[in-house]
Amino acid sequence: MHLQSTFGFALIFLFGMVAAAAIPVEVVQMGSKHNLYLLTCTRRSSFSECPLLIFCSTEAEAEITYNAIAYFADGPFSTTGAVKPSQIATTSEPPQPWEGISYGAKLGRTGTVTASIDAGAAELESGQIAGLAKLDTEDFVCFKDGKTFFEVRNELGIRKYSCTTNYWCPSIAA
Question: How many structural domains comprise the chain?
Answer without folding.
Answer: 1
